[in-house]
Structures are given as C-alpha cells and as structure tokens.
Amino acid sequence: MTEPDAIDDLPGKLEHEDIGRYFAEAIRCYHAEAYRASIIMVHNAVMAKLRHELSEFVKLDMAGGLKAEGEVIALEKSRGGYEGRVVSYFKDNGYFSPHQDGFINNLARIRNDLAHSSGREASQDEAKLMLRLSIDHFLGSQKPHPGVAIPLLIKHLSRPDYFPDVTVDDVCSVVESEVKAIDPTGYKRLVDQLVDAVEMPGSKKDAELVGGVEAMNTAATNAENFLCGLLLLNDVEETRIWSARIAKSVFERRKSRTLIPEGHGYLLSLISVWPAFLKELEPAFLMRIDQLAAAVYQALDKLPEKEASRHPAQVVLAMSSEPTERGLATDFPMMLDCIIDRFWSDADVVDALLDGGLGARLVDRIASHMEQATASVDEAEVAEILRRFDARLAEQIDGPKAINLLSSMSHSRFCGAVAEIYNGEFFYLPKIRALGRAYVVEHIPGRLQDLGLIREPVVVSGFERAMRRRRKSG
Fold first, then answer.
1. Are 385 and 432 contacting, i.e. CB atoms less than 8 angstroms apart?
2. Which residues contact 303 (CB under 8 A, 6 or more apart)?
3. Which pLDDT value is given to residue 467?
4. Could you tell me which of 224, 286, 223 has the C-alpha nearest to residue 251?
5. Which pairs from 256-260 meet CB under 8 Å and 24+ separation?
6. 321-337 pLDDT, tens per residue?
7. CA distances (Å), 3 to each of 9, 37, 131, 140, 227, in order?
8. Which residues pair with 14 in a beta bridge?
9. pLDDT of 238-260, one tens digit each?
10. Whole-model pTM?
C-alpha cells in the first residue's frame, strides 16, 4: 500500500462522525502539502471531539461537567478560546490516559507554534504523525479511561434492565463484556465503586443523588450481582484475582464498620458465591457476619427465589462446602437458629441443613414446634418434611431425639397429616421409627404401647413383593 493510500485509510478509523469535518480537511491539506494547516485541522478535530464528549458527560451527570460546560459556553459566546477549559476538565478529573495526556500536550504546543508568527513550518512526517496519533489516542476507537468508564458503568447500574436476566450465564456475560472495556489499571477503582453502590441503601447519602430511592435500590441490586459475576467468571485465575480485590475492598476495609442488613446484606451473596472468604476472617469478624445474617433472615417477609445467592439454602450450602476452622455450627449459631426457626419447613433449606450435618438441631426445632404450637400447626407441612427426609434425618439423630420427635407427634390435638402418621404407628417414617423403637426396647420398653411402637416392621421378601405386584396388575 502506498503512503497516500495509508493516510486515506485513516478517516475509516474514526470512532464517531467527523464533527465539523475538521479531520477530512486535515487529510485534504495533507495531500495539498499544506502540512501546517493539516496539523491545525487535526487540533481542531480533537478539540471538537472533546467538546462533544463534554456535552455527553453533562447529559450523564458526570462530576463537574455542568459547571465546565457553562464556562465553555461563555467562552464560545465571547469568541474566546474554549479549548484550554475543555482540556483542563478532562485532565483535572483524570479522564486522560498517560498517552492521551502526552499527545494532547504535544499537539497543543505544535499547534500554538504553527498558528502564531513564529516562522515555523511543519514537515510531511510531522503532519503524518499527528494524523495517525490523533486516531490512535482520540478520534479512533478507544478503550475508555477508567475515570470515564467506571462512573458511567456505576451510573448505568440504576437501569432495571442492566442485566437482561439474572441467571449466572447472563450476569457473567454482561460482567465479562464490561470488564473488557475497562483498562486493568482501573480494576481496584471498579471494585471500590461497586461496593460503594451496593452499600448505598444503608448509608446516610441522599437517595436523590442517584435518581431517587428506587434507582438507588436498583443500582445496589445490580452492583451486588456484578460483584457476584466477577467471582463466577470462567477463567479460574482471573476469578482468583478478582476475589482478592473484593476481599481487600469489602472485608479488610470494613473491619471497623457496623454491619447492617440494608447496606451489608450483599456480603451473604458474596459468601454464597465464594465461601473461601470466610477462611481469611478472624473469629470476631465472623461473629459480626453471623449477627448480620441473622438480622437479614429475621427481616425477610418471604424467602427469595431458590437460585438467589442470598437464599439461606445457598448460604448454608456454601458455608458447609468450605467450613471455617471452628465449623459452621460454632461460628454461625445466630444465623442457624434464625434459619431453622423461620424456614425449617422449606425443603431446600432442610436439604442444605442436612448437607451441613445439622439434622439434630432441625429435629429439635420441629419437635419444639409440635409441642408448643396449638391449632396453628400446619400438619401437612410437618408431615411432608418428615416423610421426605426420614432417612437423612435418622442418620443425624440419636435414639432420644427420635423418641422426643415421635412423642411430640402423639398429642390428641392433631387430626390431620400428623395424626395420620401417628395412627399409622409411624410406619410412614420407617427410619426414624426404627431408631426410636430400638432405643425404647432397650431403655424404656414400657413406652412401646403409648408411642404406637409395639409392632415390628414386616419384612417382605423380594419374591413376595413381585407376586403382590403381579396380583395387582392381574
């Protein structure tokens, strides 16, 4: 490709329209060997681009934008040079990369030399270099500087449709795309500002600063999902690095702060997604997490969606998968008491509690509920949980607990599904019944009658079962 063709390719690399047609004029001047005029037009093209971006920043309510544009407009009306004010706005707010800053300084110096009666002339190489560098650093496709990209990202979090859907795949897809558009030098700032956004509902900041309470809460939810998405990216090494950044921003920075449900409930989501965080925390901070979790779950009107990272089942499963040194039951007693007390009848929660080896505490809570409650007992609810998890519960309790549970179900006030289990001599709960009966036979045989445990299970051979099925089908 010849040299003129290479220069003629540059307009095709413009990221946006050629505002004022300055760049096109710079190309024409270059071909006319008017290199001085070409560089001045390059300067005009870059300034026009920055002036346009300042107006866009004002629309996005970027910090200081409105004041800067007001001053620029005043300069334009007085026919004064506005370029210095535009450049100072971007510099003062850290919106230029080091390369952009160096180029704009050099371009302004050369332009000033050429525009005044200094007798200086420009060379072809100089004009060619300015044309190409203007595309590289300003007029062509740019990865936004973190000072620009991150505030815009945070602002867009207030959109309800920021994530098309909150499935893991959709969240990770958006997060990965956003991260790729940000220079790595801004990753720490990104995490810190995401944390600030997610904690805003618990702060004293005026909600109107972010568009009202609804927008603030939407931004907080999206920021929480974004942080979780960073921990769920496919690249294992990249995820490990993000987890270290988040740990530093979230846990190290907040050791001296009071944790409240409104502003710090998102910590449960992070722990649910990355439970290894807990292994790095001191017991005193784990106690604060325990208090926070209990407060969050106590305040719930209803359980979130099963897949939600804050769902108690997800949190318990995560904590069980990466247990702390002292164990789940020791480090998080308040949380477990609250979860068991409020959500013992939810099958997903029960499943998670059993995975965590908490069957004994669960049985104690069910028995207590049966003994203390009156007409409010939902017998179908109790029966469903016990029948569904009979085998797993029996594996985690001893004989006395089994007897305590069966005794709690023997009250005459029950007339529904619990009464059905009792009247059926607890054969609907074969494993718990067997465990309890074995204990009674050995220690308190006199209670076999009143507990309905007299009869032993009838063992049916495989042949006999097959014959019964055959008779039924015939």
1. no
2. 311, 312, 343, 346, 349
3. 62
4. 286
5. 259/288, 259/289, 259/291, 259/292, 260/202, 260/292, 260/295
6. 999 999 999 999 999 99
7. 10, 19, 13, 19, 48
8. 140
9. 999 999 999 999 988 766 568 89
10. 0.74
